[in-house]
Amino acid sequence: MTHTSFKQLLQNLGNEPLFVLDRNISKSNYVPLDLSVNNEALKTVDVSSSEKLGMYIDRHIAMKNAKVAYGGYLEKRGIYNRSDYFNDQNPETERNIHLGLDLWIEAETPIYTPLDGEVHSFQNNTNFGDYGPTIILKHTIDDVVFYTLYGHLSVASIENIQVGQTFAKGTQIATLGDASVNGDYPPHLHFQIIKDMQGFSGDYPGVSSQKDVEFYKQNCPDPNLLLQL
């Protein structure tokens, strides 16, 4: 399937309401959030501190009278500079371009699958700044196989699931973790679509370098094609 056809499939699926958070949260209660290097307001925030970044995000949500902040697809971010897991002296190979959609909301928030799926893999990715507990679901729609990744979950989310376990669309699959388990970030869901897992299990790159971003644009299309926030 071509990249264009795959994007069209996702967009068609997204024409009906799909949710990874509580479906009773109206889309009017979602507010865009810019965490890019171009956001001047972040230059006064210590983004290496999950507490201070969380305060900034909470203020942003409150000022907009919203419940959820979202965004980040293909956003070039400075928040990864704190971690050797992403950092590199070469600007071409430094990983700082975000490949998923982040949804910022409090810890223990339930997470749902937007589509029928089965557990491809799960893992606690414990590098500093990594996903923490992660679940990857496999979906088959019209004979097309693709995957969705859910990162920054609670540890409890991966304690009682099994590879091959099936979840119906709209079923709760997890809860969000806090900074003590989620890679040291303010609580949020990293939601990512993956066309080809490339042999990964329980993990898949969620941040790209400039050198590799064109590949990931093809393999990881915008998750908002599904959610349409």
TrEMBL record:
InterPro entries: Cell_wall_metabolism_enzyme, Dup_hybrid_motif, M23ase_b-sheet_dom. The keyword Transferase applies. CDD domains: M23_peptidase (cd12797). Residues 97-196 form the M23ase beta-sheet core domain. It comes from the Bacteria. Keywords: Aminotransferase, Transferase. Pfam families: Peptidase_M23 (PF01551). GO terms for molecular function: metalloendopeptidase activity; transaminase activity. This is Putative enzyme with aminotransferase class-III domain protein. It comes from Kordia algicida OT-1.
